[in-house]
Specification:
The complex is a heterodimer of chains A (about 450) and B (about 575). Chain A has 14 helices and 16 strands. In chain A, the strands form three sheets. An eight-stranded parallel sheet of chain A has the order 2-1-4-10-9-6-7-8, sandwiched between helices. In chain A, strands 11-12-13-14-15-16 form a six-stranded mixed sheet. With about 575 residues, chain B is of the alpha/beta class. Chain B is built from 14 helices and 28 strands. In chain B, strands 12-11-4-1-2-3-28 form a seven-stranded mixed sheet. In chain B, strands 13, 14, 15, 18, 21 and 22 form a six-stranded mixed sheet that branches. In chain B, strands 25-24-23-27-26 form a five-stranded antiparallel sheet. In chain B, a hairpin with a 2-residue loop joins strand 14 and strand 15. In chain B, helix 8 crosses helix 10. The longest helix of chain B has about 30 residues. Chain B is globular, with a radius of gyration of 25 Å. Classes of the chains: A alpha/beta (about 450), B alpha/beta (about 575).
Amino acid sequence: MEQKEAYAVHDLGLVFFPAFDWAISPDHPEREERLLYTRDQLMEEGLLELPGIIEYRPEIATENDLKRTHICIPSVSAVASKSHLIAAGGSIIAAKAVLEGRVKKAFALLRPPGHHAMRLVHGSRGFCTINNEAILIEYLRKNYGSHLKIAVVDTDAHHADGTQDIYYNDPDVLHISVHQDGRTLYPGTGGLNELGGPGAYGMTINIPLPPGSGDRELLFVLKNLILPILQEYQPDIVINGAGQDNHYSDPLTHMQVTAKGYAELTRLLQPDIVVLEGGYAIEGALPYVNLGIILALLGMDYSRVQEPNKERDLVITAPEVLETVKKEVDFLQEVWSKRRDINLDKVFGAEPYWRRKRFIYYDTDDIYEQQVDQIKRCELCSGYRVIHSWAQKRSARESRVAVVHLPWHVCPECRNKAEEAYDRLNPGAQLDRVYLQDVENDLFLEK
Amino acid sequence: MRYIIGIDVGGTNTNACLLQIDQAHQGQVVKMAKTPTVHENLLFSTKQVLAEISKDLPVQDWTALEIHLSTTLITNAIVEGKGDPVATIVSPGPGLCLADAGLSIPHSSVGGAIDHRGRETAPLDMDEVRNALRVADLQGAKAVAVVGKFSPRNPKHELAIEDLIKQEFPEFYPPTLGHRLSGRLNFPRRVNTSYLNAMVARLQREFIIKISETLQEKGLGLSPDPREALERPRRKVFLLKADGGTISLEKSVTRPIETILSGPAASVMGALALTEAQKACTVVLDIGGTTTDLSILVHGKPLAEKDGAEVGGYKTVVPAFFSRSIGLGGDSVVRYQAGRIRIGPERAGKAAALGGDNLTPTDAIILTDGGSFGDRRRALAVMKEFCQKIGGSPWERAEEINQAFCQQVVQTINEVFAYLNSRPVYTVSEVLAPRELKPEKLIGLGGPAAYYLPKIARLLAVPYEVLPYYEGANAIGAAASRPTAAISLRVDTALGRAMIPELDLVSSLSHPELFDRKKAEELALESVKEYAGQIGALHPGARFVVDEEEVFNMVRGFRTVGKLFSLRAQVKPEVIKVSP
């Protein structure tokens, strides 16, 4: 009976949360129905009753879980719905089960997704509001050791620009995103030259795949770039942002990956924690892709997982596509091997601060944001950060905020300077609110 | 006046009761009877107890007598692996490899595939099926089960194989078809259930005939000629099912698997029949000689197993009350191990005080509570012998045995509630308003219940109630049960299709765009009525309810193309209230 299971270590912990009562809007792809067919497939296969699987109930993420990761403007409750909090909380439950040794691996098969949510959150972009993976990473660093070496491998067809933004200058989180080339798909970013900030150069890796790439290209990147990098980096935890929209039947993308390809990827990558991201071929892909991923995580045979009518619908990828991918892989291999020797002044300039101006569009909520992001170049830590942000939502008044961010392992000098900066910045004619995010002390101030 | 005889064949005793039912459908106990269960011959015990209860029946009009029987025949056959050799033909389609699905039964796979929406994605190869059946014949199969993946969403392939069997392999006709046993999705469980159903079908047929003959002898015949019993029954004889409902004896021939685990169901029905409606979350404990069975009432309704009953290590789709059995009873073995007293799970046999040889929990109770039965000197003698090995006084040790018994029950109750509260939920509203269950009341039945219940309740700090007629309350539960039946309706307006697996129904909607929730509910209610009629569950005063409902908009390319309705409708489960 159950008491026996409570003590056994399972191969896979599953947090399945289809949020059957939540949608962005009735006709939106991110809707109630999204995981319905996946549920039907999992139920009919009797998968949840396999002895290797244990299912966990999600919990609600707390306000502090979010504030450790995001600055929600104007507040957590204004941007994140209950279902967002449950998806984030469910991801935390999955991660905890792994870290506490109750399961070998965990899969947070839940929605809504999160990988387009950046550190500052004015609203939703790319169907995402809060970043489930980043929230679980920050939870783990807070509760299981701030020196954890973490690798995120995002395999969604869209560039994981939110997760990249949060960890762009973080030397303890290696962020690898493989996606359809941004020149052909939302959000447009994720080019080869986005390689990380001055405090973490080479710790962001982007592999933009040409449209039409399939299992062969994806697995080539995995075997020749991602696995060797992970082998060298030796992370404590590998997290897979498992978007399923590289599938050949996805209505929003132009890729040719199959359910078996995803299963193969999962088997080779051996992630500790898998978090569902996008994927909107809810009938033709998700039931089979999720089945394949779960079987691969269990170390079981997935050779019989196959989409109906695959022969009819799968397009043969042109041979030139693989050639393009090989060149990208060559380039990134070189960057990775030379990342410590590169003269960062040539990349970021010789100023004491690295400043960049950015324009961010929130497509889901139709918000235009402009940012000036300034990172202190510091030899002792990754450097504190001051972000000014101006966001305009349709006819609403422009929202103007400033954020002071103190990273993990911040040095005393940067801490002093950051605290001074927070004291100096005050709400007034130019600023609506000012936020301080001090992750090490779990301290979140605003004025 | 109507009368109902209820019989429960238990692990230790077979109990019977005679209820008198008035115009308002209220029951009154007229008489109780009891006989020890003879495991090798359950029918013998049934005959014995029937003879006793039907002596001097006050019945004038013989058609006004119903017989409700809860028997362990099928459960035992499955546990002991008795029954016919079965050929199980499965059409697994793409997905999990069957070898990995935890299926322990032999099966042969054929091609063909149906997807999650019930569309045929690969055709069946009839020659392949023919070959599988020929091999089955050569290997000596006597019955056939046929199960396709997603067959509840479209039974086309299973029906085609049934037709082939009828035409070309009449010796296997009728086979058990998976989709008729459950509309719920769970292929491995459906395979198990169909296999078991086919395996015990002949046993059930023989049982029906034997019971008919027995009733004939007692002058309670099903019909004047036992050979007509199946086709033209006159007397209403029902079997109790795992979900606390009944199925008519003659209809059980096609679905014998539903009569498994009727024992725990009889206990719960007894608790429902003999008590006021329970508001608190109530634990029903049936403390017997060999086992203690635990069930739960939430808001007065029995909690059901999420996926179906488990029997003899087989997970099935058979609807069942949630129940857990602990190997702990009045006749359990008592040991002293690693400085602790441990009881069960094996049976020691009769208590020493009642003529047995070994120390049992019953002997301890007789010593400490001065039970009004048994030989106290014999109980003391075995207790003293026990103390010689481990020290302590017989009275202290007897009290320790009582405590250990109760603590083992409490531990199981706590584990069961921890499990129930960790069950996953799939909607935002359920996460926000979790239904945290905790034991708030105990109801007890079974021989030793009167002694143990107060002690267990004290440990849990909750009130308790020992049922009147607690020794035979499960027979009252069997008598107080009413028929149940359920159907699953699925309407896919994008495909323009309505499906009810239990009725073999796949029909086209004439105006899918006009189909709505109200129509879905009407169709489900009409259909469950039709189905209840087919399986003999249409009792007078039966009410029909929709108890599960799921509606999804189907969006394709930013446009709503249809709706999916999944409904479950059932004959409202009812119980005859019985006053002692």
